Automatic annotation (TrEMBL):
It holds the Pfam family EHN. Residues 6-112 form the Epoxide hydrolase N-terminal domain. This is Epoxide hydrolase N-terminal domain-containing protein. It comes from Neodothiora populina. Keywords: Hydrolase. Belongs to the peptidase S33 family. The keyword Ribosomal protein does not apply. PANTHER family: EPOXIDE HYDROLASE (PTHR21661:SF79), EPOXIDE HYDROLASE 1-RELATED (PTHR21661). InterPro entries: AB_hydrolase_fold, Epox_hydrolase-like, Epoxide_hydro_N, Epoxide_hydrolase.
Length: 381
């Protein structure tokens, strides 16, 4: 291990943990709808928020979650003046291939907690060495300078892999991480040999008649862009407001982040206790690391949602290395094969109905299977 890379352990001081629990329990949460029978017309339902809050105040155990997080080795290294936090879990297999896993918002490195171990399993058909960084401005990665784009993040993540001794690697990612993976697959093909995406906005060919699946998801996509973008408008125009409003407000962070988990995932997954625990651990990470403000920067510095597909079509953003896409039915913007293949060298495509935007959490077995299949194709093995 390079001397430039230092070991790190997640340890939140006990006085901070006590204060966090006290703030949660002291919060006066709304107890009734904004108007009678509001349902979900005005945002998330009171029932959903009350249930998640009650699970947090009465059952959730941060100490147990901290132990789970520390089962993997954590590190910090400085690249271009930015401290980058990451997990580096090596497989015991001498034939393991390097894999970079990149999260988005409202995720974190913890988004891959259910796939790291199976991906690194030395007894699997294709094991990986997993590198799971926190984006600049998230968790223990320091905030980037003004004007920092996801293309800049791709550059330093490529440097991170080389610093760790990996001359070539594959990538799995979604959400904002999609733009990191797209840049790596477009501009860093000497090192990036395969990109797997679970989020890949792309336009259909002009005049194309919608398939049954495309028609089903189109209404949800239109509804998302019309009725669910308030958070993004705030983050891309008033990130200071978001930061001052939420930084020391754990319950506020719970609904700010949790609403997206509630809206962009498979409905059945949202009823599971493990799903609620995952949300609360992610919220806790944002709170303990004071990153809610800087986590807004991808929205402020990068392309707007309604221009995602147009941006992906630009020649310089075309993925040159072999790439794969898994279209999850419950995602915010599930694409189809004939759309995504217009944006790069698509060699693998699969549709899955068991997950949504948070694919590695909702469908870990599916992600593991699809990443392995893509990398086998890309490496010719």
């Amino acid at each position: 291990m390079s001397e430039e890379v230092r070991r790190f352990k997640v340890v939140i001081p006990e006085e901070e943990v006590k204060r966090y629990y006290q703030k949660i329990r002291d919060t006066r949460v709304p107890t009734k709808d904004i108007v009678p029978d509001a349902g979900s017309d005005y945002g998330f339902t009171t029932e959903w928020a009350t249930d998640l809050y009650s699970a947090w105040a009465e059952k959730y155990d941060w100490h147990s979650e901290q132990k789970i997080i520390n089962q993997w080795p954590h590190f910090i290294t400085e690249l271009e003046g930015i401290d980058i936090h990451f997990i580096h879990q090596r497989s015991q297999s001498p034939d393991a291939y390097p894999l970079l896993l990149v999260h988005g918002w409202p995720g974190s490195f913890y988004e891959f907690s259910r796939v790291i171990n199976p991906l690194t399993d030395a007894n699997s058909s294709l094991p990986f060495h997993c590198v799971v960084p926190s984006l600049p401005g998230f968790c223990w990665s320091s905030g980037p300078p003004r004007g920092w784009t996801l293309q800049d993040t791709a550059r330093i993540f490529d440097a991170l892999m080389r610093r760790l001794g990996y001359e070539t690697f594959a990538v799995q990612t979604g959400d904002w991480g999609h733009w990191v993976g797209r840049e790596l697959g477009a501009q860093y093909t000497d090192s990036c040999k395969a990109v797997h995406l679970n989020f890949a906005p792309a336009p259909l060919p002009e005049g194309a008649k919608l398939t049954e699946r495309e028609a089903k998801v189109q209404g949800r996509v239109d509804d998302w862009l019309e009725n669910h973008m308030g958070y993004a408008i705030m983050m891309r125009t008033r990130p200071h407001t978001v930061g001052w409003m939420l930084q020391d407000n754990p319950v506020g962070i719970m609904v700010w982040l949790g609403e997206k988990y509630n809206e962009a995932a498979h409905p059945k997954k949202q009823q599971l206790d493990e799903w609620k625990t995952h949300i609360l651990t992610t919220v806790s990470l944002y709170y303990f690391t004071n990153c809610i403000m800087t986590s807004s920067l991808p929205y402020y510095e990068n392309v707007r949602h309604e221009k995602f597909a147009q941006f992906a079509m630009r020649p310089k953003n075309r993925i040159q290395c072999p790439f794969g896409y898994t279209s999850f039915y419950w995602d915010t913007e599930p694409s189809s094969k004939r759309a995504v293949e217009r944006t790069g060298n698509l060699v693998f495509y699969r549709e899955r109905d068991d997950g949504g935007h948070f694919a590695a959490v909702e469908s870990p077995e599916g992600i593991v299977e699809d990443v392995r299949e893509l990398v086998r194709i890309a490496l010719g093995s």
